[in-house]
Design brief:
The complex is a heterodimer of chains A (113) and B (114). Chain A is mainly β and 113 residues long. Chain A contains no helices and 11 strands. Chain B has strands at residues 3-5, 10-14, 19-21, 24-26, 32-38, 44-50, 56-58, 64-68, 73-78, 87-94, 102-104, 108-113. Classes of the chains: A mainly beta (113), B mainly beta (114).
Chain lengths: 113, 114
């Protein structure tokens, strides 16, 4: 079975550009999470959805970040405009009902110049 | 707010040696506890979890962890490490009420000497 699929795997962009990261969760999973990983701050939860509804977006750093989940099989994380401090690896994860058992994608490495 | 501390940033052990990775948490009640492993360039994979009951839990790849309430600890162990265990290991905590929202420790990078 396919796992969580993220795209792109690598993205290099210039400051001020819009960045869109995409995620396809595992079929049948009803929760989806966006995490950001940096050396300085470790793994941070940005936002998570249950049944396509955003439940907690308290980790979204600022208004430049937005996330959507239009259906059960697709989510996007958008940064507009991007800044160098947004450089990180962004992970998408999905889960079913078992608490804490998250299935992670391979991540999208973002570099903002 | 709950927090997770992994005191060791980097540990090096020889292949075949035993391993213990430390994890301490701060929370007013017993949270849900997890260990995840991340290989280079990969996402995280769940090794094991503790919700309640037996305080010694078994996971995949020969790992186990013991919950000690008195010490607020959930240390990960393996009796004999293999070169393929080299990775980064993350302890995580979930609130009972919102257990799907996890707080991760900073991670411990494990290096294996041949």
């Amino acid at each position: 079975d396919a796992g969580v699929i993220q795209s792109p795997r690598h993205e290099v962009t210039e400051m001020g550009q819009e960045v869109t990261l995409r995620c396809k969760p595992i079929s049948g999973h009803n929760s989806l999470f966006w995490y950001r990983q940096t050396m300085m701050r470790g793994l941070e939860l940005l936002i998570y959805f249950n049944n396509n509804v955003p439940i907690d977006d308290s980790g979204m750093p600022e208004d430049r970040f937005s996330a959507k989940m239009p259906n059960a099989s697709f989510s996007t994380l958008k940064i507009q405009p991007s800044e160098p401090r947004d450089s990180a690896v962004y992970f998408c994860a999905s889960s079913q009902t078992s608490p804490g058992e998250l299935f992670f994608g391979e991540g999208s490495r973002l570099t903002v110049l | 707010a709950q927090s997770v501390t992994q005191p060791d940033i980097h540990i090096t052990v020889s292949e075949g040696a035993s391993l213990e990775l430390r994890c301490n948490y701060s929370y007013g009640a017993t949270p849900y506890l997890f260990w995840y492993v991340q290989s280079p360039g990969q996402g995280l994979q769940l090794l094991l979890k503790y919700f309640s009951g037996d305080t010694l839990v078994q996971g995949i790849k020969g790992f186990e962890a013991e919950f000690k309430r008195s010490q607020s600890s959930f240390n990960l162990r393996k009796p004999s490490v293999h070169w393929s265990d080299a990775a980064e290991y993350f302890c995580a905590v979930g609130l009972i009420q919102g257990a799907q929202k996890l707080v991760f420790g900073q991670g411990t990078r494990l290096t294996i000497n041949p």
